[in-house]
Amino acid sequence: MKKILILGVGAQGSTVAQRMDEEENVSEIICADADPAAVDNLVKILKKGKGKLVDASDIDSIKEAAEGVDLIVNGLPLKFGKNVLEAALEVKCDYQDFAATESIHKNWVEGIKIMYDVYGKRFSDIGKTAVIATGSAPGLICVAARHTMKYLDTCDTIYTIVYEGVEAKRFLPFWWSPVTALSDMAGTPIAYENGELIEGEPFSRPIYRKYDYLDKEIRFVEHDHDEPVHMGLNAKEFFKGAKNIYFKYAGAGVAFAEPLYRAGLLSKDTETIDGKEISPFNLVLKHIPPAPKYHDEIKEIIEEGLVSDTGAMVVEATGTKDGKPVRVETHVFAPGLAESFNRAGLTAEMYLTGQGGALFTKMFVEDKYTQKGLISSDMLTFDQVDYYRQCAEELDITMDTKVIDLN
């Protein structure tokens, strides 16, 4: 029986807690946050839940909450990542998070390398497993990328592609944290090109795709995301020697943020305007509504009406199979907003990211990780990928793969 500490009970953490509450091999779920109301609201709907207030800026506070647990699931903001990693090592438990921390090194790419090399050895030395980047993207999409490799002997280029096509009639540009969304929009995109990690320009190098299940051609652009970094660093061992790996993004959030970026309104540098010091980023952020997360709020948005309720998550990989050039496409299908709400009272973003993350937690609970040390979600074995896919299908999250002959 597993005892789990979930740090951060927002959309991701609370979804994982609810899913683990249903698992026979889980004995207790400690729900920890700095917000007592958020903790109480979650614990009261769980059978195995226990609330705890934690100051994540204090490692000792995390260690106290983690005493005796088998696994820490880190759903906190990225700035707390190093503290949670250190606490997990000190109490000697397994570790999971949803995205790479920014607190290990001022350059987050170097931080990922440190996580692999330094923290990987430290977790291995105590016989424990840390799995990072376990949401939907990165996370689920990385599982899809690994699955795609089954159909190739060699790989040259991989595109990981996400289209956030859910759009409400009310002004709601982002379905997740606006500060995270805007920071990513203005961040420097990283691509893996010709075997090297390179920096790009936000919203640059567009590609266009028209998939059968979308009613129009979509323009996808460069975006600051983790997948090319993780997969690029692991290309030789896990991605058939791929030389080029990209993340391409589209949706209402991109359409909203791109002109702001080009106008300089996503800059975090302060400017003097009419005698007042103002950060354009903070000014824009102040006028963006928070992502909906409560049942009645989501219900109201749906009842007001939606402009669209669609999306796409695709992995496209070109390479060879049996000496012939091919392109392999894996399309991920999942419930949209209306269906996610009907099934679980969640938005589509909360459903896909939370459920995607919970499946990685389930793999801890079921002792499916054979690796010791630190791995990212793109480093699963094919057996682990198959188990993940099997569990995802029970949540109506499916993968459809097709091989296209390029001769």
TrEMBL record:
SUPFAM superfamilies: NAD(P)-binding Rossmann-fold domains (SSF51735)
Annotated signal peptide: none
Superkingdom per UniProt: Bacteria
Limits of the Saccharopine dehydrogenase NADP binding domain: 4-100
Protein name per UniProt: Saccharopine dehydrogenase NADP-binding domain-containing protein
